[in-house]
Structures are given as structure tokens and as C-alpha cells.
């Protein structure tokens, strides 16, 4: 499976002022490749994190970023289970989102590289 998306939006107030935390561009590329039928598939997802306006009181923006996730998932039929093992933000990209004005900081740092392992077992 291979999928790509791109969107453009220009969110603004009636006076033409750009909205806070509304990226103009969004893009992603996703792919899944079967490695061993039903047992393992490899997945790659790449997202473009576009700049976002931080506050109404200034024109400051967050920096853009590219974030990639890698996972392997599959099914263990004999044990009635499924699994996912993944590395999220594999390139350890540091990027921010605008925070609510009530926070001490104007931006919120997003997670760097993280790991996930999940096993789901069902009873027949």
C-alpha cells in the first residue's frame, strides 16, 4: 500500500489575520510492505509539520519539521494475537506546537524519538 496526501488551507479571521495554530500546508506519505504474509508487515509514515502561527499578538511562527515513523506489525494466529513494534519520530526531530495562552511557555515541545510495543490477545 502506498498513499500520499497534500492539502493547502488559508485560515484567517474576517480582517485577514491568520489563525493561530493553523498550518497552511499538510502533507504525508505512507507505505506498507508485507514481509511475511500475515506474520509481519513493515510500515513507514512521513509527515510534514508546517509552521504554525504562535500568538495573535505577534507574527512569530513555529519551525517546520519532517517527522518519520517506522513500525512492524503482524498477526500470530496460533496465539490469537496481533502486535505492533514501532519507532516514532525516528529522526528525533525537535519541533513545537503553539500552546494555550494560559501556559507559561508560548509553545509546547513535541516528543522526540519514542518506542512502542503493543500486543493484543483475543479469546476465540
Task: Tell me what you see in this structure.
The chain is mostly beta strands. It has one domain (2-121). The chain has strands at residues 2-8, 25-36, 40-49, 65-76, 81-88, 96-98, 107-109, 114-121. The strands form two sheets. A six-stranded antiparallel sheet has the order 1-2-3-4-5-8, with no helix packed on it. A two-stranded antiparallel sheet has the order 6-7. The protein is elongated. The mean pLDDT is 94.
List the helices and strands and how they pair.
Elements: E1 2-8, E2 25-36, E3 40-49, E4 65-76, E5 81-88, E6 96-98, E7 107-109, E8 114-121
Antiparallel strand pairs: 1-2, 2-3, 3-4, 4-5, 5-8, 6-7
Q: How many independent structural domains? A: 1
Low-confidence region ranges: none
Global structural class: mainly beta
**SSE order, as H and E?**
EEEEEEEE
Please compute the radius of gyration using only Cα atoms: 19 Å
Strand content: over 45%
**Main sheet makeup:** 6 strands, antiparallel
Q: What is the CA-CA span between the terminal residues?
A: 29 Å
Mean pLDDT: 94
Strand order of the largest sheet: 1-2-3-4-5-8
* Count of β-strands: 8
Number of DSSP helical runs = 0
- Summarize the amount of helix as a percent range: under 10%
Outline type: elongated
Amino acid at each position: 500500500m502506498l498513499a500520499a496526501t497534500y492539502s493547502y488551507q488559508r485560515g484567517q479571521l474576517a480582517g485577514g489575520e491568520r489563525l493561530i495554530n493553523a498550518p497552511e500546508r499538510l502533507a504525508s506519505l505512507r507505505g506498507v510492505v508485507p514481509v511475511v504474509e500475515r506474520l509481519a508487515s513493515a510500515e513507514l509514515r512521513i509527515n510534514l509539520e508546517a509552521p504554525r502561527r504562535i500568538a495573535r499578538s505577534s507574527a512569530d511562527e513555529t519551525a517546520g519539521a519532517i517527522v518519520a515513523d517506522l513500525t512492524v506489525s503482524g498477526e500470530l494466529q496460533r496465539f490469537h494475537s496481533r502486535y505492533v513494534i514501532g519507532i516514532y519520530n525516528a529522526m528525533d526531530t525537535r519541533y513545537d506546537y503553539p500552546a494555550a495562552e494560559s501556559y507559561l511557555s508560548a509553545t509546547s515541545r513535541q516528543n522526540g524519538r519514542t518506542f512502542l510495543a503493543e500486543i493484543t490477545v483475543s479469546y476465540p
